[in-house]
Amino acid sequence: MKLSINLLSLKFLVTLTVMLAGAEVIADEAQVISDQVMSDKIAVTAEAHQNTQATTANATNIENKRLNTTKGSLKNPNAMLVAMAFKFKNIEGAPNTYTEVVANYCKQAKYGDADSQFALGWMYANGKGVAADEKVAAQLFTMAAEQGHSSAQESLAKLSNVSPSTALLACLQPDPPPTLVSNNDNADNEKKEISEKTAALFYSQRHILKIVNKLAPRYEIDANLAMTFIAVESGFNVHATSPKNAQGLMQLIPETAQRFGVKDPYKAEDNIKGGLAYLQWLLAYFKGDLKLVAAAYNAGEGAVEKYKGVPPYAETQMYVKKVAKLYNNTSHPYKDNLLKKTSSIINLENMQKNKTM
After folding, report:
1. What global pTM score does this model have?
2. Which residue of the set 29, 233, 315, 349 is catalytic?
3. Of 66, 72, 154, 223, whose CB count within 10 A is highest?
4. Per-residue DSSP letters for 265-320?
5. Total structural domains in the chain?
6. Is 233 known to be catalytic?
7. What is the C-alpha to C-alpha distance for residues 221 and 205, in angstroms, rounded to an integer?
């Protein structure tokens, strides 16, 4: 009886061992299958990635072969310059012709973007979207090169025998001044444009011109007039300091800086804001008379009132002439009713005019 029980127990243990062994084999096989499935997935993913890379590389090579057209030794160094016209056709608002690409680059180049100046120069050098013009190309490459654009410097070296154009493209010209409603008797006079030489001077300071173009309309001031005062005051030197402690681009003395809320006179944008605010005030005070405005900016409005005109200071008289030479206008629109009180000089002149009429 005892032997029978032992035999049954032994049989049960053998059966249990076989079952456990089978379960282990099944688990091993499941793991193998799982590993194989994962391996297959990885292989498929890798193959798909390789195919995508191959397709992209092939498309890029084809595009580059088509775009890397040469004229002399100039090559398109960046497919983006022209590929925009072809790759982004299905994107709403994107340029889809060379002409539109040129217009986009020109808009950005106007405000001093070196990449756009270089790109536009390449298009003029290669006659893409515009008539080929190496002089214009050299001018644009020069603009970008002056800002440290290495590709522009290389391209400019290849045009070393070409004299850059001195006339700016129409799309690079400064914006016209805002039109203001004013009772200024001189407001009806035809505005004279600045000379090409002056325009080139202003454009050579593109980083400053960009700030002025942004801020001047807020104060209803012609950007060219603002650039004129910056040129005469500091020669475009952000860190300029005079013996009288006039500071920054528009040479604001501490009292004037405080008067118009300038926090940092050596920060270009802060200084220009203060200078434009002061110019707006002077234009309103002297009713757009630029000779008196320039004299007051240099010597103070008190001195102009005292002498009933430009003070007899050699520095101030020379200053007024410099402003007149660059800006080439005797008057500027002003914001009417900005001030409760205006210059007695202007009021006296108006009275004298009325008496003679």
Report:
1. 0.51
2. 233
3. 223
4. TTSHHHHHHHHHHHHHHHHHHTTTBHHHHHHHHHH-HHHHHHHTSS-S-HHHHHHH
5. 2
6. yes
7. 19
